[in-house]
Amino acid sequence: MWDGVKVGISVPPIRTKKGWILIYHGVSQRSRYRIGAALLDLKDPTIVLSRTTDAIFEPQEAYELEGQVNYVVFPCGAIVRGDTIYMYYGGGDSVVDVASISVKELLDVLTK
Fold first, then answer.
1. Across-strand partners of 81?
2. What is the pLDDT of residues 55-104, one digit of tens each?
3. Cα–Cα distance measured from residue 50 to residue 57, given in angstroms and rounded to the nearest whole number
4. Segments forming the whole domain that contains residue 19
5. Is the CB of residue 6 less than 8 Å from the CB of residue 22?
6. Apex CA 56: angle with CA 39 and CA 17, to 5°?
7. Cβ-contact 85, 65 below 8 angstroms
8. 1 domain-assigned
């Protein structure tokens, strides 16, 4: 799996009507840091309702592929404005950037 070696928490969980969206990082056997998401139960967040089977974000830009640590995107914070999650992340352990995704699109993937 894309997160088969290690997983770690990243941004605070995001409350939605369908559950808590938990964005997390995972590391593959090839030492690549990628980002995925899980949907946790609203009343009991120890219950994982679903998770992405594939990474939703991975290193692609030059500053993510090469840096102090190569092949790294590492989420550090997020805000929600309207239907958009803005996720702030480190790339290659050398830069800070922002990526965005629609809350609806992410919930569609998590609730299939």
1. 84
2. 999 999 999 999 999 999 999 999 999 999 999 999 999 999 999 999 99
3. 17
4. 6-110
5. no
6. 30
7. no
8. no
